[in-house]
Every structure is written in C-alpha cells, then in structure tokens.
Design brief:
Helix 1 packs antiparallel against helix 3. Helix content is 39%, strand content 5%. The protein has 84 residues and is mainly alpha-helical.
Length: 84
Amino acid sequence: MNDQPFDLDPAVIDRFAAIVGDKYALRDQADIAPYITERRGLWHGSTSLVLRPGSVEEVSRIMRLATETGTPIVPQSGNTGLVG
C-alpha cells in the first residue's frame, strides 16, 4: 500500500475547498487522521484533502471537478470497514 498522499496540485485543492468552504475542506494531516485510520487502528490510508460536503449539489460539483482534473475520489461514510 502506498502511504504517501496523492500529489494534488495546491490550485486544485483550492478549487475543491471553494466548493465546500474552508471549514469543510480538511488539509491538515492531524484533522485528516480520523478519516484515514481504520476503526481498530490496523490500517491507515493517505490523502492530502478530506472534503465534507453539505448537500447533493456540493457532491455533484466535487465529482464534476474530480472528473475534470483526473482527481481520484474515495467516498467514505462511517469508517467502520463494514462495506459491501
């Protein structure tokens, strides 16, 4: 597993943050840690940005920008590891 965050251009990060607002665009690794750590602490992911959209419209805009910029998106919900 690659433990380095996806190298996302800072200008692209700013464009994503503009969609949800800076309060809901987590960039600091300390703030991101709970979102990339599996519940038992056994597995850790990596990312340079966590977005917390507040509406379907924001999700749509995020996905549109991700497609435009070729940015990988990993949806995350309860962080329980119980998916399927």
